[in-house]
Amino acid sequence: MQLLEDRIIRDGKVFPGNILKVDSFLNHQIDVSLLEDIGKEFRRLFENDGVNKILTVESSGIGIACLTAQQFGVPVVFAKKSQTKNIAADVFTAKVHSYTHGRYYDIIVSKEFLKPEDRVLIIDDFLANGQALLGLLKIVKTAGAVPVGAGIVIEKGFQEGGKLIRETGLRVESLVIIDSMDEKGNVVFR
Ligand code: 5GP
After folding, report:
1. d(CA 70, CA 76)
2. Using CA positions, which residue lies closest to atom 17 of ligand 1?
């Protein structure tokens, strides 16, 4: 997606540890018009897949998921991040290792909002090592719902997540894939 590549070149900042900050348009301040274009692109990519629910994880996936859901006319469910030891019985859970924070957390989704008849499109902002996506996929499968695919805004192609997730058989559509980047601002797209 050329628009997104141009925006990353213009406004993205590369930090130590291979972290790309996109706080000025995606992760802190949000360019809603860009998100609308992103939503339309995910709609185009998955329009024939019978999607009836969008699943993401709080917090940075929510805005993207909402503008995507608007294009499909379906609801968004976001997994909540939980630090509590006592997980209720009426939720699906998965343990996720956070790339950006270097620790484990649980993600939870109420059983009320994911059912076997659901055809779920998973949306997230970044795909790095794939742990967040694996956790969401586990929840969809545990619910007995159908994971139709994952829509990712930015895949860091030099990390293992893309390969890991595609090997599970899940269709992954990334709007941009970064093959390399450095702190001088050089970003190479696939
Ligand atoms: P993964 O589980 O694939 O390793 O990481 C995915 C999650 O980590 C995303 O939901 C995103 O919030 C965060 N993340 C991973 N890499 C980056 C990055 O380079 N920049 C930002 N802003 N977030 C990242």
Report:
1. 9
2. 19
